[in-house]
Structure formats: structure tokens, C-alpha cells
Amino acid sequence: MRSKSRTKYCRKNRRLSNGSRNECQKPFYSGMLLEGICPKGRRLPPQYPGKGEVSMKKLLVLSCLAGFIFCVVGSAGALVYYSDEYDPNHDLFLRGWCHDSVSWEFNIRDHGFVPGERDVVSAEVQLFLYDDGGCFDFWEVAKLGIGDNTFWWEVDTGDLSFSVASLMTLNTSGTVECTLTACLGDFYFDKGVLNVGATDGPIAPVPEPSIMLLLGCGFVCVAGFGWKRFSKKSTDDRQ
């Protein structure tokens, strides 16, 4: 009975006789392929394992890049909040037929905000109002000016919130002017509150989309460099 000869494989996936000694008998190595798999998808013998593990240097580079991405995203999402309140000594009664008004200034510098060191990204003004009531009381209309923004609304009992669209004044001076005017009917004004969200730390000189673009280019360059080394090694093996 004929015994089966032990088949050997070279890098070019060609079979060699059992007794032949050739340079092609060296194991097939490639850091970009799975362990023990040749280019045509055939599994290599156990004595010639593939070298598919990723080097520690590559792992270190990828870990650093991933950590840098998380640091950028984390720093961009971290906010510091400031709040300032205007509360008169007594509730103000505003009459619409007289166009009564009240003006005040919010100042978040008194609460630790330093202009130029942080970037204001959100701001909201809350008004606490209540109606005087009465059988001949129908509806009330008020106007609120916040910096360059003006809001008109019908007054109801409770609190109202307004988002400040223009944040330039808050960024440069840390202050914003407000004026509340009764245009129709009458109501009581209790207090006003300003809530501000600002970035934690100085403003980044490079925008976040540009950083992500640079990281993407870096990954492409790393992949191209690895492919170039693999192609060069394959050419040397054929020779």
C-alpha cells in the first residue's frame, strides 16, 4: 500500500516534493493576513504558521489616535454653567395701557465667568410672571428685549423661557441687557433668571471638523504605508 507523501507549500502556493530542499520552503509571513492563511485562501501546514498578529508599535499608534479622538470629543462636550438672577425688592405691577416697563442687566462675571477664556454656546432667560386676575381681565400681551432680540407673547400665569440667539455680547463682556414692557392688559413681574452654558477651557484654535479630517488623512497615510511595505515584500519574495 502506497504511503501518502507529506505535502509542503511554498509562498507561491506551489507543491514541493517530499525530498526537495528549496528556498520556497520558508514559511509564508504577512502581517496583513490571518494566521495560517495563504493568498489563495488555503490553510498552511502547522509547521509554517502565518504571522498575522499586529505589532505592538501599531497597537500603540492606534491606541494613541483613539485616545486623542475621545479627548477631543470629551473636551468639546464638557460645559460649565453660570446663572444670574434679577429679583426686585417687591413684585412689579406692569400696566399695558401705560406701557409700563422695567429694565435690568444680567452679569455672569460676578459668578466666575471671564470673557475670552470661555466660549458661550447657549443662553436662556426665564421670566416669572403672574396675572392679577379680575372679572374684567381678558388677556395680557408683553414684549421682552434681550440684547438685539425681541419677543412678543401673551402673558399667562407661570414662568416663560426664551433662548438668546445672539451670544456676542455675553462672549465679549459677560453681560446682557433686558427690558420687559407691558403692551396690553396688566400683570405682575416676580423675577428674571439667566442660565448660560460655556465651554470648559479656552477656545480651541482648530475647529473639531478639521481635527477629524486630519485624523482621517493620518489613517489613510498609515494604511498606504503598510500596503507599500507589503507590496515590496511580495516583490522580493518572487525574486
Topology:
Blueprint: E1 8-9, E2 15-16, H1 56-77, E3 79-86, E4 92-95, E5 101-107, E6 120-131, E7 140-146, E8 149-155, E9 158-163, H2 168-173, E10 175-184, E11 186-199, H3 208-238
Antiparallel strand pairs: 1-2, 3-11, 4-11, 5-10, 6-9, 6-11, 7-8, 7-10
Compute the average pLDDT: 69
Taken together, the total number of domains comes to 2
Strand content: 25-35%
User: What is the makeup of the main sheet?
Assistant: 5 strands, antiparallel
Q: Determine the number of helices (DSSP H or I, runs of at least 4 residues).
A: 3
Measured between the Cα atoms of the first and last residue, the distance is: 40 Å
Provide the structure class. alpha+beta
Radius of gyration: 36 Å
DSSP strand count: 11
Q: Within the CATH hierarchy, at the fold level, what is the topology of the largest domain? A: Jelly Rolls
CATH top level of the largest domain is Mainly Beta
Query: Rough shape?
Result: elongated
Word description of this protein:
The protein is α+β, with helices and mostly antiparallel strands. The chain folds into two domains: 1-70, no CATH class; 78-199, Jelly Rolls (Sandwich). The protein contains three helices and eleven strands. The protein has helices at residues 56-77, 168-173, 208-238, and strands spanning 8-9, 15-16, 79-86, 92-95, 101-107, 120-131, 140-146, 149-155, 158-163, 175-184, 186-199. The strands form three sheets. Strands 3, 4, 6, 9 and 11 form a five-stranded antiparallel sheet that branches. Strands 5-10-7-8 form a four-stranded antiparallel sheet. The longest helix is centred in the last third of the chain and has 31 residues, at 208-238. It is elongated. The relative contact order is 0.17.
